[in-house]
Amino acid sequence: MMQSGQRRPCRRTIVVGVDGSAGSKVALRWALEQAERTAADVEAVNVWTPGTTYFACMPVAFAVDDLADAAGTVLLDALVEVTREYGRSVPIRPRVLRGFPAEELLHAARSAQLLVLGAPTHGTMAGLLLGSVSRQCVQRAACPVLITPAVPDRVPPQSLRSVDAHRHVIPPRS
Fold it and tell me: What is the pLDDT at residue 46?
């Protein structure tokens, strides 16, 4: 039992972006493994952006509640799938946020130990033209950012599991 005046040890947090893609599931798996090694919590974040489409030249907004519910379902489905196959447990806080993905992920990770994102699955040219959430996060994050490969079979598992003696993340070798 803690005495009054004693500080409770602060658990570190690993923030991971989860959008339901294969790459984000690889990132979630990696974040869970790293959290287990470093006694950290995982904050799994899904960010949705209110959408507008055009029908007969008139803007039509999507129902906000439907988008929020869909984002929550995507996040929980990914968590269930990955934790079922992963089999181990660390504290996980699921968060569904409304906004622009890069901005919200950067805000969520402002005091995190690490931000983990899945690599985009589209080609280099598409990434340049569309803008990349991972690129924005790497350039602007206040904490280290790890980008996992979108396809886990392309990288040997041991290269994603490297941690040095001081529990710093060692990125995979190219």
Answer: 97
